[in-house]
Request: fold
Amino acid sequence: AYGAPAGARAALDSLGERFPNAVTRTERTSNSLYRVFIGPLSEDEKGGALVWFRSRGYRDAFIQQVSYQN
Reply:
């Protein structure tokens, strides 16, 4: 997560076209927090993506499955 949009944008720029991605903004009491998400990923892609991110310094990267309801 990033405290400024520029940090989230830099993270996305480092991904290039490798993964589908999104940024969300969460309001906090005095500031905003920007989170970078990638996906959707297939089951086969998840492990490789996690290794890829952690090897590039994103040590706190994790896999989270989200269910969407229409």
About this structure: The mean pLDDT is 87.
